[in-house]
Design brief:
The complex is a heterodimer of chains A (about 270) and B (about 220). In chain A, about 40% of the residues are buried. Chain A has a single domain, classed as GHMP Kinase, N-terminal domain (Ribosomal Protein S5, domain 2, 2-Layer Sandwich). Chain A has about 270 residues and is of the alpha+beta class. The longest helix of chain A is centred in the C-terminal third of the chain and has 26 residues. Chain A is built from five helices and twelve strands. In chain A, helix 2 packs across helix 3 and helix 3 packs parallel to helix 5. In chain B, the strands form four sheets. Chain B has a five-stranded mixed beta barrel. A four-stranded mixed β-sheet of chain B has the order 1-6-7-3, with no helix packed on it. In chain B, strands 2-5-4 form a three-stranded antiparallel β-sheet, with no helix packed on it. In chain B, helix 2 runs antiparallel to helix 3 and helix 2 packs parallel to helix 4. Chain B has about 220 residues and is α+β, with helices and mostly antiparallel strands. Chain B starts with a strand and ends with a helix. Helix content of chain B is about 20%, strand content about 35%. Chain B is flat, with a radius of gyration of 20 Å. At the A-B interface, helix 1 of A face strand 8, strand 14 and helix 3 of B.
């Protein structure tokens, strides 16, 4: 039998009871994030890498560059590929093997946030139009899952892309010289798409849930926005949201997103 | 010898007069550690108190588990070990209607039980003791099982300190699950923070004083 440990019923009842009075299971306020720690340069082979810790949740994100042919419909644009892997070491719930729903969703939501916000200026990633463009690979690995991998992954992806440096490219040989990084970073804009997941438990809306809170979450909305422009939106789980709840979700996500954005900048300094 | 932190394979002490105790091994007159933990000497007996690792069940342990399955003659309980434990109908000191066993314990219910036997077939649990049974309410969270002795303290001194200061009922299972039940939300959260403080600082010597100080500094 599958051994998947979920939150005990009694604890779940307590979390709901606490939230009715506006209190969280671990003493935080509903709109508080856990302590965010960003460690730079954890991988020596990646062009940019970070380790992000949100309380006990931990992910490693690496950015790797490669040269490839552009897609036919965008001959002058670079490519972006985001993959997420939920490693079995991070939680008893994850198994090795082909990615399942959670991992696919994690990768795609992160990808959508980065792509649709205009965070990367893809035109500048073009080397020879129609022939050679840079492809940016963003790989997300979970190291420990204590809830909210989604936001940790986005924060990690943004931070890793911000510190990534483009390697030298030998145009005559058509070879990338990975050992020689240029000083040039990725062509990023100031539309930083920090995606924030807001969870609904009972009538409360909370951010940055722990494992226990995520287990009893009725509905999740992940919203990527920068400067008040919504660039990505994902709703998970089956419970519906009321109209005014969605408005509150937008308000919370925009507010928290700004705070996190400042924290990322501070950590990367 | 003072307490010191050792890793597996490390020589703790060299000398034929010493005897290997828990989590240690003697080879060619040297005592090696088998676990990562604190090495300690008492009357020439060397033992290592582990700082990390999974729970290893012992007979007589009180544990908090979760009902995994209901079978014809008992319940399968997950106690955070590789094997499930079995709670037999015979070990429940009350009348159980065999056609409605889920009325006593249903899947996903939490239960406080005692390990009464460990054998080749598995671990057997019992409810035949005071205070054991289904957990009706309260907050349950996990700590590292190796820190449980520090949370309980010498003869229950630490747990008594937490109970006295918070007014909450605190039950610690040897498998690392902690149950807190209190009158108010804030007192429960206060007790939880106290338990986590103890677990985080379990290596500190004079921990009871440190916790006493913590309570004075973090009064609610």
């Amino acid at each position: 039998m599958d051994k998947v440990r979920t939150t005990p019923n009694t604890t779940a009842d307590r979390i709901r009871k606490y939230l009715k009075e506006g209190k969280r299971f671990d003493g935080r306020n509903t709109e508080d994030f856990r302590e965010l720690v960003i460690e730079k340069g954890v991988s020596c082979k990646a062009e940019g890498s970070v380790r992000v810790k949100l309380g006990k949740t931990e992910v490693i994100v690496g950015v790797k560059m490669g040269v490839s042919e552009p897609y036919a419909d965008s001959p002058t644009k670079g490519n972006l590929m985001v993959t997420a892997e939920l490693l079995p070491l991070s939680s008893p719930r994850f198994e090795s093997g082909p990615p399942r729903f959670d991992a696919i969703e994690l990768g795609r939501v992160t990808d959508r946030g980065l792509r649709e916000s205009g965070f990367v200026d893809f035109d500048k990633l073009c080397i020879i139009p129609g022939e050679k463009v840079w492809t940016v690979f963003v790989d997300v690995y979970s190291i420990n899952d204590d809830g909210n991998l989604m936001d940790a992954a986005t924060i990690g992806a943004i931070a890793a892309m911000k510190i990534a440096k483009i390697p030298k490219y030998d145009k005559e040989e058509g070879k990338v010289l990975f050992d020689e990084l240029t000083d040039e970073g990725l062509p990023l804009t100031d539309h930083v798409p920090v995606a924030i997941s807001v969870h609904k438990i009972g009538n409360a809306l909370i951010v940055d849930p722990t494992r226990e809170e995520e287990d009893i979450s009725e509905c999740r909305v992940t919203m990527g926005s920068s400067k008040g422009i919504i660039s990505s939106l994902q709703k998970s789980n089956s419970k519906p949201l009321e109209m005014d709840e969605i408005k509150r979700v937008f308000e919370i996500a925009t507010k928290v997103s700004d705070e996190i954005n400042k924290k990322i900048d501070k950590a990367l300094k | 010898m003072d307490r010191k932190v050792v890793i597996p394979g490390e020589i703790i002490i060299d000398g034929d007069e010493y005897l290997p105790g828990e989590n240690t091994e003697k080879k060619e007159g040297k005592i090696y550690s088998l676990r990562y933990g604190l090495a300690e000497e008492q009357n020439n007996l060397i033992k290592v108190i582990p700082l990390s690792g999974v729970y290893s069940p012992r007979r007589g342990n009180i544990v908090i588990g979760k009902v995994e399955n209901v079978t014809a003659n008992g319940w399968l309980i997950d106690i955070g070990y590789a094997d499930s434990a079995f709670l037999s109908l015979m070990e429940v000191p009350r009348f159980v209607n065999k056609d409605a066993m889920e009325e006593v314990l249903d899947i996903d219910d939490m239960v406080l039980a005692k390990i009464w036997s460990i054998n080749k077939r598995g671990i057997d649990l019992s409810l035949k003791s005071r205070g054991l049974g289904k957990i009706e309410d309260g907050i349950i969270f996990e700590v590292n099982p190796n820190k449980v002795p520090r949370i309980i303290g010498k003869e229950g001194s630490m747990i008594k300190l937490i109970k006295d200061n918070t007014g909450c009922d605190v039950t610690v299972g040897q498998n690392g699950f902690v149950l807190i039940k209190g009158e108010t939300i804030s007192s429960e959260l206060y007790a939880k923070r106290a338990v986590l403080f103890v677990a985080e600082n379990s290596y500190v010597s004079g921990l009871t004083e440190a916790v006493d100080k913590w309570f004075k500094e973090n009064k609610e």
